[in-house]
Design a protein that fits this description.
Number of helices: 11
Number of strands: 30
Distance between the termini: 45 Å
Largest sheet: 10 strands, antiparallel
Strand content: 35-45%
Shape: globular
Helix content: 10-25%
Radius of gyration: 26 Å
Length: about 625
């Protein structure tokens, strides 16, 4: 040991002596004398999109939490960017990390909204005036602009059309004296989503409560009236409550611009433009989604054979084989339960925390069990992104989907012009690699109802120093594992950190680091391992035709009112049925604790992820 250490030190000393003899020592390097950077255009051309396996440990999550706001602030220090953004009345942000230490960022917004229509007609024509999109590539080591492009302003128009039952709900808000006073001198238009099938709140369950949103515009601001409606009696809705939310985004881009000191000169025209293929995918097409990278509905790549179908209400449906052998027969994004105003968790699992009475009534202000469909929350399928072998991981690809209200048909024009209060906005993606790894990723963008919750929902009745949890997401992925076989059942095991255990019956498990769930072929070598890091929760049950699930012989979300009205958490399906050598449904519960991150509404991203590992699939 000593000899080795001495040799190392002597070698180091020799190197220092050699450097001094060659005239390379004795220098003082100032911070202004930075090494020359690679050519900007080459750096841009070679940049690629990244995923979790391109980063060490949890750095991918950290990048998404931290860098979006930093990238926006770097853009706004440019005088030309700042001049444009300062005039906006609302905004929309999109962010993606690239290789070569680049952040792809876009900001966009209009200078005004005009509204033509009335509740009597049920039609509102809305125009976002002079909407502009600004694209940037930011050096995330130095917070410097590497590429910049400002699109020309354009008016963006869309129409809101509603049936009589929907306008009756709007009228309930307009009948409230405080709302009438607030809307005086303002233009407004409603955003109504018939959301009772996915909503619980104020002690009411599925199909008993819904929401209505009014966007209000004056000369300088756009604000929101957020209403909750009792819809238990069909055709006779009743007003419950409403909140006036003046600043429904925390740290809005236009406000940040007005408060940001700018550099002396703009780099616009001095640095390259931002190529379409390097822009964030959901805003790359002049502020809207880019769809041309979608694959065929069945394709082979990196030892995988993937078949997919567009969403109904449970996201894209996938079937997968690896090395010619089955892995899962169906996989779906079943729900994203988004809860607001929860009490402190106090060590409870998510079922006990969200639904302590084992009923579909949230233990908080309200919840949306988000569905993932095209008409309601599309666009659904968005792109296939190829990953070369790099940074120690093999080649692979990501199948990306995106969901926020109104994304199909009119193309999310409202959301993408800044009218983004309330409805969801996140990516659900699956990465498949040549070595048999699958990485499910849920990436949230916001803002949701966060500001409303911060301003209005108060503290728990039994408050003892810990505040209400403003917002907490769960994301539920479910699949039918078929490790090497679709004939008969599978074997299910749990590694508890010390030894493998074979549970006989259905179970709900809160994972801990070092634990795993394994599905294996009883008559073969194929295995699917799921590490339970990041406090993942899992549910393993038998498929039941009277329960919601991903299998084709199960109920699809919102397709059966009775079954949907009883759904609240996959743990509710755990009974005493035997699971060994049987078909099983595997529910993976990922959490996104937005309450714990800074700047939670609209300017901070969040990533929840997991990993499936295949073994014994050799050709």
């Amino acid at each position: 040991m000593k000899a080795t250490g001495a040799a190392t030190v002597l070698g180091l000393q020799a190197s220092i002596v050699g450097a001094q003899e060659n005239g390379q020592g004795g220098e003082v390097v100032t911070t202004d004398e930075q090494p020359e950077l690679p050519d900007a255009q080459q750096r841009i051309d070679l940049a690629e999109r990244v995923g979790p396996r391109d980063f060490h440990e949890e750095n991918y999550e950290i990048i998404n939490v931290h860098r979006r706001k930093e990238a926006v602030q770097t853009l706004l220090r440019d005088p030309e960017v700042n001049r444009v953004a300062s005039d906006w009345i609302a905004h929309f942000i999109s962010y993606e990390a690239l290789t070569n230490h680049l952040d792809a960022i876009s900001i966009q917004g209009p200078t005004d909204y005009t509204v033509d229509g009335s509740l009597e007609s049920g039609t509102f024509d809305v125009t976002a005036v002079d909407r502009q999109t600004i694209y940037g590539l930011i050096d995330r080591r130095r917070n410097e602009i590497v590429a910049l492009q400002i699109e020309e302003p354009t008016d963006v128009q869309w129409t809101e059309e509603y049936e009589q039952e929907q306008t009756r709900r709007v009228q309930l808000l307009l009948d409230q004296q405080e709302i009438q006073q607030y809307l005086q001198g303002k233009d407004y238009w409603p955003m109504i989503k018939v959301a009772e099938s996915i909503t619980s709140g104020r002690g009411l369950a599925h199909y008993e409560i819904s929401v209505v949103i009014l966007y209000a515009v004056d000369e300088e601001n756009v604000s929101v009236v957020s209403g909750f409606i009792d819809v238990r009696e069909e055709g006779n809705p009743e007003f419950l409550t409403a909140y006036i939310v003046d600043d429904f985004i925390r740290y809005p881009v236009q406000q940040m611009a007005r408060e940001t000191a700018t550099n002396d000169e703009s780099v616009l025209g001095q640095v390259p433009n931002v190529p379409v293929e390097k822009r964030p995918m959901k805003t790359a097409n002049n502020g809207f989604h880019r769809f041309e990278t979608l694959p065929e509905q069945q394709f082979q790549q990196d030892n995988w054979d993937i078949r997919w179908e567009p969403p109904e209400t449970q996201g894209v449906t996938f079937w997968g084989e690896y090395n010619g052998k089955p892995v899962f027969s169906t996989m779906n994004a079943m729900a994203t339960p988004t809860a607001y105003g929860l009490p402190p968790r106090e060590g409870r699992n998510t079922r006990e925390w969200y639904f302590p009475d084992n009923e579909p009534v949230i233990n908080g202000h309200h919840i949306f069990w988000d569905i993932h469909s095209i008409p309601f929350g599309g666009p659904g399928q968005l792109a296939k992104i190829d990953y070369p072998a790099r940074r120690g991981h093999p080649s692979g690809f990501q199948f990306r989907t995106h969901y926020h209200t109104g994304a199909q048909g009119r193309g999310s024009v409202d959301f993408h012009t800044g009218a983004q209060f309330g409805p969801y906005n996140y990516n659900i993606s699956y990465e498949f690699f040549e070595d048999g790894r699958i990485v499910p990723i849920w990436r949230r963008h916001g803002p949701g109802y966060v500001v409303e919750a911060l301003r209005n929902y108060g503290v728990p009745e039994d408050w003892e120093g810990e505040e209400t949890v403003v917002q907490q997401y769960l994301h539920l992925t479910a699949l039918e594992p078929t490790p090497g076989t679709t004939d008969g059942g599978v074997r299910t095991q749990v590694f508890d950190g010390e030894e493998w255990v074979t549970p006989e019956n259905e179970f709900y498990l809160v994972g801990e680091p070092g634990q795993k769930v394994r599905f294996s072929n009883p008559d073969g070598s194929e295995q699917i391992d799921v590490p339970l890091n990041r406090n993942l929760e899992v549910v393993v049950v038998r498929p039941n035709s009277d329960e919601i699930g991903p299998a084709q012989d199960q109920v699809t979300r919102t397709m059966d009112r009775e079954v949907e009205s009883e759904f609240y958490h996959p743990a509710q399906y755990v009974d005493d049925e035997s699971i060994q050598d049987q078909r099983v449904i595997f529910w993976l519960i990922m959490e996104a604790s937005m309450d714990e991150v800074p700047h939670p509404a609209g300017v901070t991203g969040y990533v929840a992820q997991a990993e499936f590992q295949l073994n014994g699939y050799e050709n």
